[in-house]
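Sample intake sheet
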Amino acid sequence: MKLLIQCVLLLGMCAGTMFAQEEAKAEKPYSFSSGLDFVSSYNWRGQDLGKSPAIQPYAAVSAYGFEFGTWGSYAFNSEALNDAGVKVPFTEIDLNLKYKLTTHSGTFAIEAVDFFYPYMGKPYSHYNLNEDPAHMVNVALHYTGKECCPVSLLVDYSAINDPDKSIYIEAAYPVKFGETEVGLVCGVAKGKDKSVLYDVDGSKLAFVNTGFTVTKNITFSKEFSMPIATSFIFNPYRSAAFLVVKASL
């Protein structure tokens, strides 16, 4: 945890230095974003978390290739078990720090994500692995191809508070049909012995997340439209299928 904090502070210092050096060169060297998604269920990499509709707010600030953001999910129904064995709504709050580098070959990024689960009933400062922590920290590498070949690749490693040290690898490819986009995805996961995170037994790679997403802007009026995404998700390892709808504001 100390190493992670040191890395975050170092990245923050680098970003601050770059901001100070470039501030005179650009009127707005940074940008802010925020929004809110409504989902029929929170499906994460082929798993239904919370078994309930949920709202998912997010916000981020970006500058000079760096992005710092937060994202959350709040279920409507009480379907998750807390540490006391009581059913409560599934809740999650994430913090992420990402650095992107755009090249002639595509965009590369490195990202650290801190997953926190308030529904477990533990304080935010509870990181100790030996005491059933409420946090998990993942480190990921991303690649997105240029417009001529917009394939995206992800390699995600559960670095802190996952005893299985799980690995998730995903490839995705978008196809456009007019104003409609169809995104294809295929993801595999593994752990040392049994990955509780991805519900995979054994240490071999297993297909856990395959399917497609159809996204289209729905126009309600001249002033208001909303992107609607419908996803069919199939987990071959567990032979489980899901249909998820997401509306974004």
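Comment: Confidence is low (pLDDT under 50) at residues 1-26. The two ends are 35 Å apart (CA to CA).
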